[in-house]
């Protein structure tokens, strides 16, 4: 039990709660992306198309979780949604390019390619959401 308390203290001290919320929210959004991608690949859809469609579904889930849970934004949807869409478009393009380079050019399998892509996209997303989209709260 003491080990759990120590880990909890270290997490609270060294990892900002916002980053933990971002990771959780992004994990749920990523799971929805991967689920849609897997279903489409299983149905015979090309991997690049499947990841693009999966990213769209993940983005919808992500908007509501990041806005309400992670960044607790009070900015009205009518103001924050357009910047979110613009950032999502950039992220979606980056996701496709990175995936394409890994999967098609480097011949890495689809699952591993998307795993690497997801890590890179997560870092880019956090920075863009925090600085551009949901910046109504000062950290």
Account of the protein in words:
- The chain is mainly alpha-helical and 139 residues long.
- The chain has one domain.
- The protein is 83% helix and 0% strand.
- It contains 5 helices and no strands.
- It has helices at 2-14, 17-42, 47-70, 77-105, 110-133.
- It is globular.
- The two termini are 32 Å apart.
- The relative contact order is 0.13.
- The mean pLDDT is 89.
User: Judging from the principal axes of the Cα atoms, what is the shape?
Assistant: globular
Strand content: under 5%
Number of discrete domains: 1
Instruction: Give me the count of strands.
Output: 0
Mean pLDDT: 89
Radius of gyration: 17 Å
- Classify the helix fraction into a percent range: over 70%
Distance between the termini: 32 Å
The helix tally amounts to 5
Could you name the ranges where pLDDT drops below 50 across 5 or more consecutive residues? none
Secondary structure category? mainly alpha
Order of helices and strands: HHHHH
- Largest sheet, strands/sense/barrel: none
Features:
139 residues; mainly alpha; 5 helices; 83% helix; 0% strand; globular
Short description:
The protein is mainly α. It is built from five helices and no strands.
């Amino acid at each position: 039990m003491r080990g759990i308390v120590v880990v909890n203290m270290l997490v609270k001290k060294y990892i900002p709660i916002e980053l933990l919320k971002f990771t959780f929210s992004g994990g749920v959004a990523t799971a929805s992306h991967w689920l849609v991608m897997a279903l489409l690949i299983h149905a015979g859809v090309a991997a690049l198309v499947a990841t693009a469609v999966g990213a769209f579904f993940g983005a919808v889930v992500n908007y509501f979780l990041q806005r309400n849970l992670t960044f607790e934004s009070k900015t009205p949807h009518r103001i924050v949604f357009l910047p979110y869409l613009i950032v999502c478009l950039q992220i979606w393009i980056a996701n496709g390019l990175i995936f394409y380079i890994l999967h098609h050019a480097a011949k890495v399998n689809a699952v591993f390619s998307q795993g690497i892509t997801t890590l890179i996209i997560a870092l880019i997303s956090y920075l863009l959401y925090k600085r551009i989209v949901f910046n109504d709260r000062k950290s």
